[in-house]
Each structure stands twice: as C-alpha cells, then as structure tokens.
C-alpha cells in the first residue's frame, strides 16, 4: 500500500525504478515492517530536499507591533512568491519531522549485526544511515537510525552523484516559461530523493527517501569487507579470501578490499609460520610481497620463513631444495640479509669440500674425492673453480648414476644353478659377472662373443672343438686373469653328478675334456651340436670356493647396499697414468615411481634409466639431451606355472584361465597407456616375435567368458575342489596392476586367485614374469622347469610326447632343423597351455648424452660392455 503518494509521484517513482533500480533481491530482516511504516511517514512529511537542508537554521521571534489598518497588498513578484512558498514548506516540514521522530521505530546502527557469509551471498542489502534529527546536539553515530534496503543505484557515491547532478541543474539559467519551471522543479525533486525497495517487500512497491535525511550509505560491498575483516580476526582465512576474491572480481577498486587482502595474506603467513607449515607461509608472504613490498613486518617474516626452510632442507640432505628456497627469495629481494647470509655460507661450504676433494685425490682416494666434489656441485654449483676441479676428478674416477624402479629383492645367488627371478636380478647378475660366451647382438639370429676365449675351432665334423684363451687383457677390462685350468675345472663341476653345480643337460652333450696348454683346451661332444656357443652361456666358477668367491669371471662387485641404493665397483680398478679412463663405479638409486625417476633424470641426479615403462619413456623420447635406444629384444610378459602345483596340472583350469583374460584391453590401458598400442603387441610364445624360434602363424586367443566358465566347472569336477591360486609378480609398475585386472577376469568365471609376496621360500602356483629370452634353444627348458640346472626331473609334469620333443632339441644335427622343431614346440606349448603368453613391449634404455662408447647396436642388456663406457664430467647448473 502506498501511503502519501500522489498519482504524479507514483508515476514518477515507477519511471525512476525503471531507470535506476535493478532486480530486487529479497531478504528476511527483522526490522523491515518498521522500516516500511517509517518510510511511509517519511514520504508523507518530507517532500522537499531543499527545505530539509535548512532545518537546523535558527528562527527569530516575531516582534509585536501596533495594529494598523489593513492595506490592499500589492501583487507579489515571482521572487517573493517563491520565498513565501519555501517558508511555508519549511514550516510544514519542521512540524512533521517532530511527528516522525515521535513515531519512528527504526534500528540503531549499533544494534545491527554484520550479515553472515550466507546472507551476503544470498541477499545483498545496503544500509541507509539517517542523520540525527536534533542538529544542535553532537552526533552519536552508533545511535543513528538505519534503513535496510535492497542495493541502491547509482553506486558507489550515490549521494554525491545525485547532489552533483542537482547542483548542475540549479546552475542552469532561470527558466522563462511556466512549463520549463515546472519541468525543472520535477527534476529537482527527482534528484532530491532516493527510490528504494525493501528486502522481503511486495514486488513493485517503491519508496522515496529525501537524500538530505541520509547521512551515509553503507553498501553491500562495505558489509562484505567488514565481514571479511571479522573472519580474518577469527582466523577463518579461507572464507575471508573467498569473500574478498569474489568482491575483487566485481568491484576491483572498492575501498577496503586491498587493505583487507594484504592483512589476510600477512596474518595467514604468520599463522602458518607459527604452526610450522613453512611452504604455505612462504606462499602467502610471497603473494603479499607482489602486492606491497613495504608492508609492515613483511621482510622480517619472509626472511625467517626462508631461513627455516633452508635449514630444514639441509638437515634432510636436500641441497637442491635449499637452493630452490634461497633463489625464490633472491629473485625478489637480492639484498635481503638472509640471501646474503646463505649465499656466503653455501659458497664457503662448497669451497671447503673442493679443497678436501683435491687432497683426497692427491692421496689416491679417488672415490672419496669424487664424492666430495659431487657434493660441492650439489650444494653450490656456482662456486668459483668448481667446474675445473670437478672435471679433473670425475675424468679420473668415473661414476655412473642409474635410476631404477626396483632393486633386487635379496642378494643375488651366484651359484651355477640359480635363476634370476626378475629383470632387476638379471640386471645385477649381468653387471656382477660375465659368461664364458655372451650374446653380443641379435638380428635374424643370435651372435656371440667371449671375453676369455680368443678363438674356437670345431674339428672332427663338429664332434670336437679347440678353445684358445686370451693370455692378456686390455687396461679397461675388469676381470681376473684366468687359465684353461680354471675353465676346465668349471666345466668338470657341471658334468659331475656329485657336484652341486651338476647340469644334466650339459653333461649329456659333453663326452670329454682335455687340457692342451695353459691357455688352450679341447672339448669332445657326444654329437655335433647345431651351435657351440649357446652351450657355454654360464660363468666360470670354482667348485669348492666359499660362496662369496665362487664366481671367478667377475667384472663388478657390490660395495654397499641399502633399501634405496646399491653401489658396484670394478673388480680390478684402472691403474694411474693412463690418458683415458672408463666407468669405475655404478650407483643404482631406487625411485618410487616412473615419474620420480624421470624427474631425477631432469634434475641431474642420474644419467641412465634402464627400466622405464614405455609411457614414461615418451616423456623424454624427443628430448635432445638424451639418447633413447630400444633393447635388442622386447620384454615378454607371460604367466608361468609352477610344475609342482597340483591345481595347475588340470588343463581345463589352465584353459579357463587363458580364455578369461582380456589381453588387448589390459595391454592398451595398463601396460602401454596407449589405445594405439604402438609399442606393444599380443604374443603366443614366451620369447620375442622377432626371434628365430617364433611361429607367426599361431593366432592369439580371444577372451571367451562363457567357455572359460564351462572349463572351470569341468576342472572343479576333475580336481574335486576349487583351489585358490597363489600368484607372485615380478617387480615393476606394470606386473602387479596387470595381474590385478587378470584376477578380476578370473573371478568372473569362477577362478579364484590372490597375489602373495614374492619372497624366498614362498609357495606359489602362478607367476607373472617379465623376461627377454635371448636364446630360446637353451632357455626354454629352464623356463618350463623353473630350474636353471635343467635337470630331467624338472620336466616330469609335461606329457611324454612333449618331453620327447623338448629333449629332441639337443639332438638335432643342423640349425634349420632346430628352428623348425622350436616353432612346432611353440604350437604344442600354446595348445596345451603350459604357460600363458600375454604380450610383449618395446622397452628402451635412456642415457644422458654425456655417456659415450656404449654399444653401437641395440642393447642386449642394460650394462652391456659397461667397462668400456666413458662418462664425461657433468653436473646440473639449472636453477631449481
């Protein structure tokens, strides 16, 4: 209901609402009924802004005078008429203002609480603070009355803008016509009033408030700033920041936003510093530094935070991290006392380490010297003279830092019958020892070479072979000098049934051994083998020596090991006074994930990554700082069965397991992280598709859950039980995740399985293996029997006809026949499900380009010919 509005005023208010007011927002305010009533009174009694401005003017008393005869008054002039009207309106206003004061029930400013965050977000309002009625008394702002309204327009500086427009209107020349005077009067009245709506009021209900009764307007934005200040005082920094951030986007220059934001950042940083959350403190203080460098107390708090961060990093041995925090401060405050303090301290420490390294090198302690100078390079790479001394010491004692995802689970058993259970153990074995014959390269066939044998010549139609050993060695070689006596002793232990190193398969081929000279011996075969070299792929050992000294053909020895790293050094260090030196020490550092390993490569912590998954290799494949070289053989992933497991002997169960594996999906999603499977493919054999033994005509199985479920039912009936299969996995980021998906497929068809820890002595039924089978002709038997000794007993689980096929490989007369039999055996193994080949992946090795003289062809193993590698001095000088 509009009380006291004339029709002309109502239409004018409606017009003003269309021009000035935005959409009204409702809010439940406990004062709004009183506000509505009082506003109605205000509209009734206050009609002129100009009259209210003179309310406080003193009124003189009218003097008494004798009565005179009335005279006919002259016609008043326009000026006199206007003054008379103003005086009358002022008298009416004065009278009605007293009535307003007596009837008003508006809230005082001190009684209003700052709206909550929820109220500010849902229903924004403005506070109109009214002037005191008695201007003779001092103003008490806390007792001033307030009208809570929906946001007013224009904003900000609403009163000032209206007053400026009003003064501009008054400054115009006097109107000459009555119509023009009436128009200006209407405009003055419009500019002298503020049209508002009330929270929770009826839609379209407008009120006019004279601007000269309004002392100040506290806008919604001001209330937001005040609420943010209260939240900051209470330590609710997140809520305060959200309020200020939203307001800053809407009204960037609103008074109070900047001050409260700066205060928030400082107090938040201070609180984080006191709580020990140093990184958060540094972030808050750095943000404050960007906004106001000279904020009171900022430089002190910033220095204290960085100082604590550097101390903490140094105590943890994270020197790169300490330099990172120092640089963050130095970039903005290069002359800060903390920057000068730590720059001087770190440089002095690096200089001291350089002096100690030089002294250690002069004393012949080359490993210690390189350790010290490497530490100096990490602490302060910019130290004067570091580059020169680092180059000199690192060339003399070359250290190769390698990042790996897994170290061997335990010390490698170097007995002749041991078989590495995983690629990490095989990597360590290849580094620690060398075989009598080793694979040099692989193309359409396998090529061999020997570190000990200089020449081997078959005679007697291949039934005999004369081996001539090398009598000297190059200075870069790291091996003991061995004679024919040492080699023959190792061969005799492998053909002696009473020896722990007895190899039944090797013994069936050897007919006799005969020494000829200190570096020459002769071997007699029971029949002419298709190739001689694969028979001698084993290290030279001493039968009766202690375990630590059993292997004679060593090249590197383990110098120390922890859970996080392993150190290997040359068996025979290179002597002094050479012009060129080679790798003297290898340090394998374990990383928790492929991403961490790549990060270590970028930071300069390591220079070689031998076992990254393909999706991590893609991060560096196009980086010009590194070599990325594929291995000569892809890595084959296969499920191997324990021949001693009763459950696995059921062919139906093995088939059910094979048909329930959705290999293409697991390969693309988990093994490669690539839907195109560019670097992987499905396989049907436990060796590479590029191998001479692989039969490409055998198609891989497609998943068939219905058939798998039926086969499982048949296997359960035959076994008269439903066993839970125990599964072990090779280490690495792929095997366990892939095996978990395989177990889900098995579970859908009823096959139960669980992953168990792969520890020594653990009982298992199925093993997830990753391998690179270099010579299937001799490696297939140990794989199927899970015994490196290749005893005939290990093949008892195979059908007789298949066992005969496997034994027949050793009796073939020529290489072509051997290849044909291997491909036929692959088909039979696949049909009988003696293992479940999954897929193969084109793995690669990543080397920093400061490594030289590595093999010119694809790597057969990670440390192929590592004794000949040269590591050029290098350390990271990048700013962290």
Jot down its keywords.
26 strands; four-stranded mixed sheet; six-stranded mixed sheet; 880 residues; alpha+beta; single chain
Brief write-up:
This protein is of the alpha+beta class and 880 residues long.
Specify the number of helices.
28
Q: Determine Rg (CA atoms, Å).
A: 46 Å
Strand fraction equals: 15-25%
Largest sheet: 6 strands, mixed
Helix content, binned percent: 40-55%
- Give the CA-CA distance, first to last residue: 71 Å
Structural class: alpha+beta
- Could you report the average pLDDT, rounded to the nearest whole number? 86
Strand arrangement within the widest β-sheet reads: 19-23-18-22-20-21
Q: What is the overall shape?
A: elongated
Poorly predicted sequence stretches spanning 5 or more consecutive residues: 1-76, 411-420
Quaternary assembly: single chain
Total beta strand runs: 26
Describe the secondary structure blueprint for this structure.
Layout: H1 7-20, H2 32-45, H3 49-52, H4 78-103, H5 117-122, E1 126-130, E2 146-149, H6 158-170, H7 178-191, E3 193-196, E4 207-210, E5 214-218, H8 220-234, H9 237-250, H10 257-275, H11 278-291, H12 298-315, H13 319-332, H14 337-362, H15 366-379, H16 386-396, E6 398-404, H17 423-432, E7 438-442, E8 446-449, E9 453-459, E10 464-469, H18 484-495, H19 504-509, E11 510-517, E12 520-525, E13 556-561, E14 565-570, E15 583-590, H20 594-603, E16 608-609, H21 614-617, E17 626-630, E18 635-641, H22 651-659, H23 663-671, E19 680-682, H24 705-719, E20 724-729, H25 735-749, E21 752-755, E22 766-771, H26 776-785, H27 800-808, H28 815-832, E23 835-841, E24 844-848, E25 851-852, E26 870-871
Parallel strand pairs: 6-15, 20-21, 20-22
Antiparallel strand pairs: 1-2, 1-5, 3-4, 7-8, 9-10, 10-12, 11-12, 13-14, 14-15, 16-24, 17-24, 18-22, 18-23, 19-23, 25-26
Helix pairs in contact: 2-4, 6-7, 8-9, 8-10, 9-10, 10-11, 11-12, 12-13, 12-14, 13-14, 14-15, 14-16, 15-16, 22-24, 23-25, 27-28
């Amino acid at each position: 209901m509009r009380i006291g509005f004339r029709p002309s005023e109502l239409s004018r208010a409606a017009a003003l609402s269309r021009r000035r007011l935005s959409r009204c927002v409702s809010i439940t305010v406990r004062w709004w009924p009183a506000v509505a009533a009082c506003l109605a009174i205000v509209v009734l009694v206050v009609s002129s802004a100009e009259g209210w401005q003179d309310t406080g003017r003193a009124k003189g008393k009218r003097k008494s005078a004798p009565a005179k005869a009335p005279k006919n008054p002259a016609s008043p002039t326009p000026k006199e008429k206007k003054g008379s009207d103003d005086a009358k309106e002022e008298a009416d206003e004065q009278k009605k203002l007293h009535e307003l004061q007596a009837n008003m029930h508006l809230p005082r400013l001190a009684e209003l609480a700052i709206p909550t965050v929820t109220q500010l977000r849902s229903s924004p309002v403005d506070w109109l603070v009214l002037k005191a009625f008695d201007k003779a008394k001092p103003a008490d702002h806390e007792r001033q009355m307030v009208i809570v309204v929906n946001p007013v327009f224009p904003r900000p500086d609403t009163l000032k803008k209206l007053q400026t427009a009003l003064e501009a209107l008054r400054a115009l020349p006097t109107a000459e016509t009555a119509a023009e005077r009436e128009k200006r009067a209407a405009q003055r009245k419009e500019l002298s009033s503020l049209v508002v709506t009330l929270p929770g009021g009826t839609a379209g209900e407008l009120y006019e408030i004279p601007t000269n009764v309004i002392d100040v307007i506290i806008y919604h934005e001001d209330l937001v700033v005040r609420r943010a200040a209260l939240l900051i005082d209470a330590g609710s920094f997140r809520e305060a920041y959200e309020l200020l951030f939203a307001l800053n986007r809407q009204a960037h220059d609103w008074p109070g936003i900047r001050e409260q934001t700066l205060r928030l950042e400082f107090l938040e940083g201070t609180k984080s510093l006191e709580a020990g959350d140093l990184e958060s403190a540094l972030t808050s203080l750095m943000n404050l530094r960007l906004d106001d460098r000279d904020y009171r107390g900022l430089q002190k708090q910033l220095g204290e935070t960085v100082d604590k961060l550097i101390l903490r990093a140094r105590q943890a041995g994270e020197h790169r991290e300490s330099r990172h925090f120092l640089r963050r401060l130095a970039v903005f405050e290069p002359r800060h006392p903390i920057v000068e303090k730590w720059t001087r301290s770190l440089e002095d420490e690096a200089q001291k380490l350089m002096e100690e390294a030089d002294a250690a090198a002069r004393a012949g302690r080359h490993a210690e010297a390189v350790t010290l100078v490497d530490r100096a390079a990490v602490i302060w790479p910019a130290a004067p003279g570091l580059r020169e001394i680092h180059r000199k010491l690192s060339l003399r004692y070359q250290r190769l830092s390698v990042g790996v995802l897994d170290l061997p689970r335990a010390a490698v058993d170097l007995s002749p019958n041991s078989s590495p259970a995983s690629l990490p153990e095989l990597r360590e074995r290849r580094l620690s020892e060398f075989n009598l014959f080793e694979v040099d390269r692989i193309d359409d066939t396998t090529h061999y070479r020997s570190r000990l044998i200089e020449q081997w010549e078959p005679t007697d139609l291949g039934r005999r072979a004369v081996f001539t050993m090398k009598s000297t060695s190059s200075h870069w070689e790291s091996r003991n000098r061995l004679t024919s006596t040492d080699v023959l002793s190792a061969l005799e232990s492998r053909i002696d049934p009473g020896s722990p190193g007895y190899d039944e398969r090797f013994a069936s081929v050897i007919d006799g051994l005969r020494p000829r000279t200190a570096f020459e011996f002769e071997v007699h075969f029971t029949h002419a083998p298709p190739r001689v070299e694969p028979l001698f792929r084993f290290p030279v050992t001493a039968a009766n020596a202690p375990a630590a000294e059993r292997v004679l053909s060593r090249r590197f020895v383990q110098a120390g090991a922890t859970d996080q790293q392993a150190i290997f050094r040359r068996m025979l260090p290179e002597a002094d006074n050479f012009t060129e030196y080679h790798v003297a020490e290898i340090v394998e550092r374990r990383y928790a994930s492929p991403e961490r390993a790549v990060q270590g490569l970028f930071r300069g912590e390591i220079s070689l990554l031998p076992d990254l998954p393909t999706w991590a290799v893609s991060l560096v494949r196009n980086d010009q700082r590194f070599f990325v070289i594929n291995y000569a053989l892809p890595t084959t992933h296969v499920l191997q069965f324990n021949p001693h497991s009763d459950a696995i002997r059921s062919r139906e169960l093995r088939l059910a397991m094979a048909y329930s594996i959705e290999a293409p999906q697991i390969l693309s999603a988990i093994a490669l992280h690539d839907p195109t499977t560019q670097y992987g493919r499905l396989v049907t054999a436990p060796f590479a598709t590029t191998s001479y033994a692989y039969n490409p005509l055998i198609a891989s199985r497609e998943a068939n859950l219905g058939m798998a479920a039926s086969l499982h039912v048949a296997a359960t009936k035959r076994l008269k039980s439903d066993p839970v299969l125990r599964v072990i996995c090779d280490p690495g980021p792929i095997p366990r995740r892939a095996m978990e998906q395989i177990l889900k497929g098995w579970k859908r068809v009823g096959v139960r399985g669980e992953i168990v820890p792969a520890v020594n002595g653990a009982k298992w039924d199925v093993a997830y293996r990753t391998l690179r089978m270099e010579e299937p002709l001799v490696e297939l038997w140990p794989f199927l029997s899970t015994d490196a000794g290749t005893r005939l007993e290990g093949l008892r689980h195979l059908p007789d006809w298949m066992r005969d096929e496997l034994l027949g490989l050793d009796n073939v007369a020529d290489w072509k026949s051997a290849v044909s039999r291997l491909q036929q055996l692959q088909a039979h193994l696949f049909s009988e499900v003696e293992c479940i080949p999954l897929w193969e992946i084109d793995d690669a090795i990543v080397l920093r380009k400061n490594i030289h003289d590595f093999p010119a062809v694809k790597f057969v193993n990670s440390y192929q010919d590592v004794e000949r590698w040269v590591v050029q001095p290098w350390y990271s000088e990048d700013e962290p």
